[in-house]
Amino acid sequence: MQTLIELCADDVVFEFPFALRAARQGCWQAALGEYLSAIPSRIQFDRLSNLEMHQTLNPDVAIVEMTAVGCVKQTGEPYEMSYVVVLTASNGRIAR
């Protein structure tokens, strides 16, 4: 998570459309770090599967599809969640 945060612009905007209402809006880098830093205490990530990257007509935009696989730490239940991420870069950093 720290590596991802370090790749972000200071004013990065992340949108989580399916998150709790309070977490849906964009986040600045510091707030994003706080939000994401709690995830490893809840989920043990073992691997990414089904990784596909797609170019767009805009060279600053990429689309990534992936599935995170692991387990829920509190219960030991399997965790498998598929994601679609649309990344926009600006000045060599993730901007959105």
List descriptors.
96 residues
Can you walk through the features of this model?
- The chain is α+β, with helices and mostly antiparallel strands.
- It is 19% helix and 42% strand.
- It has three helices and four strands, in the order H-H-H-E-E-E-E.
- It has a four-stranded antiparallel sheet.
- Strand 1 (43-55) and strand 2 form a beta hairpin.
- It is globular and about 40 Å long.
Quick overview of this protein structure:
The protein is an alpha+beta fold.
List the topology elements.
Elements: H1 2-6, H2 29-37, H3 39-42, E1 43-55, E2 61-72, E3 78-90, E4 93-94
Antiparallel strand pairs: 1-2, 2-3, 3-4
Poorly predicted segments: none
- Straight-line N-to-C gap: 16 Å
Structural class designation: alpha+beta
Element string (H = helix, E = strand): HHHEEEE
Sheet-strand content, in percent, reads: 35-45%
Enumerate the strands of the largest sheet in spatial order, edge to edge or round the barrel.
Answer: 1-2-3-4
The tally of strands reads: 4
Backbone shape: globular
State mean pLDDT (0 to 100 scale): 85
Helical content, roughly? 10-25%
Total number of helical segments? 3
Computed CA radius of gyration, to the nearest angstrom: 14 Å
Strand count, sense and barrel status of the largest sheet are: 4 strands, antiparallel
